[in-house]
Amino acid sequence: MTRNFRRWAGCALAVAVLATTAACAEGSYGVGYIVGRRGESGAFTPTPPTPPPPPSPTRPAPADLPNETHSGNGDATVPISWPSDQPGFVTFECPKCVSNVFMNTDGDEISLVNAIGSYRGTHWINMSLHAHRPTRTLTIRANSAWTVTIADARSLPVAEPGKELSGKAESVLKIPAGVTKAAVAASGDFHFALWVTTESSSRLVVNQRPPYRNTIPVDGPGYVQVEAAANWTFTAS
Hints:
The chain is mainly beta. It is 11% helix and 43% strand.
């Protein structure tokens, strides 16, 4: 009698375990285990959970700031007072330069101008999402009178959908929300490049010698840096 009872009890326990397992499967519950290691003394030490990745960096909202202007003649080192946490748009003009013209920074955007002869162009500073080494000094090499103007985004041409923008030197364009692509064309004998930067990313989308004609992805709101010593057009849509 006792032996039969034990056999019956064992069978009942097995049926109960199978039923519980089936119920778990029907309810889509997960089955896990503790990950860790066992030391020399036999003690079990659980492995701490992996921390989540840090959030992607984001660029601070641009502020309305007064223009900052510097001028000189020939080579110079120029300290600037532009806020380190704000993007700035630097326009360099040297209309009577006749040889090599350079403008470098001590920030993430190291080389802004590398040209020969008369020059006017615009570049951004303080736009890096990662290292974020802000620009505090400009180093200029020129053989004539020059002017540097640093301004906020209000100074930029806006790439409105259907409106063609054009130029023949380095420029920065403001891309409004809702823009997703742009028709781009360039002609000439020099290199042509486009950088697109938004609140969470920065990428090189064009990097080649003209002639060039294509439609590229451009997500607004953001900015486009045109790097070219050539004629170019940009039409957002």
